[in-house]
Amino acid sequence: MSPTLALSISWLAVLGASAEPSADAVVDAGPFVKIYDPSVGEAEPWYINDHCFVRGTEGKWHLFGITRQEPASPLDEDNLAHATADSLLQQPWVKMPFALSVAEEPWKETHLWAPHVVFHDGQYYMFYCAGGADHTRYKIHLAVSNDLTNWERHADNPMAEDGFDARDPFVTRIGDRWLMYYTATSKPDGGNHVVACVSSTNLTHWSDRKVVFVDPASGTYGGPTESPVVVRRGDTFYLFIGPRGGYDGTDVFRSKDPFHWRVDDKVGHIEAHAAEVVRDVDGKWYVSRCGWGRGGVYLAPLTWNDGLDEAESNVPVPAGESPDTAMALYRKAQQLMKQQQYNEGYATAQQAMSLFAKENNRLAWMMLESIELEKVRVTVHFNMGPRERKPPEIGIIRPVSFRVWSKEPDARVLEVLDFEIGYFGGRPGTAALGMTMGGAHANFGVMPTDTEYKEIRARALELIKDRHQ
Predict the structure, then answer these.
(1) Going by DSSP bridges, is the β-strand pair 167-174/152-153 parallel, antiparallel, or unpaired?
(2) Looking at 326-394, which runs of residues are DSSP E strands?
(3) Most CB within 10 Å of its CB: which of 127, 150, 235, 237?
(4) How far apart are alpha carbons 247 and 271 in whole angstroms?
């Protein structure tokens, strides 16, 4: 079934108890539609519990989550489910092999719960609860991947330890720091059910624990502060937690402070267990549901009645097919070259460059960036080597040129500014592709990260402005 046809049919099939959005709710959901059934191909029914969505750089959607055959047995949930789709609303998603399985030694994992994936500087970070023998020091682990298929546990695990049964990590960037929200109790051996938060500057070292939400209910196992999701819309922060008002219930709380919500701040209720919030490539918002005995994963339109639809959010709109697809091809070419499959690597590189240049109206792929000024257009061109058909020699970086072009169609060169940028060398795994001005040649070198690229761009602006004041 084509994605277009699937979309037209999907919203006719209303599943679950959720009705039309409530008129007085700030946050509400429409009808839920089933998108994934983990029982397909299995001899018995399976379930999905806490899960997450991520759109890969190749343009494909990925779902990761707790999974097991029915009936539910949470301490025996030893694998993380993986499913893919070409579009978020595709029916059905395609079942893939497990993303990760429990590793007893040396990691001492006892189960795998509640994965959450973020993308940063060309790498995917999956945070998940790995359990442990001591429920007062439950472990949250990290695995990393370049392709959303092959995952490697981080050497510095665990990322966090807390009780009682600390779990359900949700990681997001607020300001200049990464924040990890998770469910816990006020004391490691039990107490009020809370949402806790730790922070990091690099996604691998976490500290500064805070309690951001306290529920009047107390206990150890379970509790009504599970599956936290934090959404920023402008200067307003929404906290989704559950189960509340029954197994299939998520409450939404609103605050101006990402480190403090109160029970009285409730602004919505969604009939969903372990709800996740996701945006599609068209910017529309959706919320998911799942759970034991629920037969899979469902999506519903998420409605905001806060007047903040144009505000910035920590839940970005996923990029469209370009440059995502070009980036995916770039990474594929990178791997092919490392595997010494040079002919296929070059063909893939040229495909990536032509796609990016064509669909983004650029002179070349990735190596060129136009900066509009009042009188001139600056094109940043990274001159790198080597150009021979061999794997990238990590550490080789040549001077960076800033060519000043006229705005006439012939793009006549007015001026060339050169200076050395040597501190980007020696970054393993950052081999990059480039394209010459004539568009006929692909070369490989060392590519700076997105953050470093922005630094180069800012430096170019400063130089050009100094020359043309």
Answers:
(1) unpaired
(2) 368-372, 377-382
(3) 127
(4) 9
pLDDT for 334 equals: 60
Contact 427, 397 (CB under 8 A): no
Identity at 346, one-letter amino acid code: Y
- Distance between CA atoms of 165 and 255, rounded to whole angstroms? 26
User: Hey, which bits of 132-176 come out as E strands?
Assistant: 138-145, 152-153, 160-162, 167-174
Provide the 3-class DSSP secondary structure of residue 44.
Answer: coil
Average pLDDT over residues 122-136: 95
Q: Is residue 314 part of a domain?
A: no
Distance CA 417, CA 447 (A): 20
How do residues 265-291 score in pLDDT, each as one tens digit? 999 999 999 999 999 988 999 999 999
State the average pLDDT over residues 45-66.
94
The mean-pLDDT minimum among 1-5, 156-160, 372-376 falls in: 1-5
Domain check: are 362 and 401 in the same one?
yes
Percent of the chain with pLDDT over 90: 58
**Three-state DSSP string of 445-467:** EECCCHHHHHHHHHHHHHHHHHH
Is the pLDDT at 380 greater than 60? The verdict is no
pLDDT tens by residue, 365-378: 333 333 333 333 33
Amino acid residing at 188: P
Q: Is residue 220 part of a domain?
A: yes
Our CA dihedral for 278, 280, 283, 286, rounded to 10 degrees, sits at: -40
267, 254 in Cβ contact below 8 A? yes
> Any idea what the CATH number is for the domain that residue 193 is in?
2.115.10.20
Same domain? 428 vs 299: no
CA 178 from centre of chain:
13
β-sheet bridge partners, residue 143: 126, 153
Residue 161 and residue 224 in one domain:
yes
For the chain, how many structural domains are there in total?
A: 2
Asked whether the beta carbons of 52 and 64 are under 8 A apart, the reply is yes
Within 8 A by CB and 6+ apart from 83, the residues are 36, 38, 62, 63, 93, 94, 95, 96
Cβ contact 12:31 at 8 Å: no
Q: Which domain range does residue 461 map to?
A: 321-467
Q: Helix and strand tally (H, E) in the chain?
A: 4, 28
Same domain as 372, residue 298: no
Q: Which residue, of 274, 304, 334, is where some domain finishes?
A: 304
Asked if residue 381 has pLDDT above 80, the reply is: no
- Residue 407's pLDDT is what? 38
Lowest mean pLDDT among 144-148, 352-356, 407-411, 437-441: 437-441
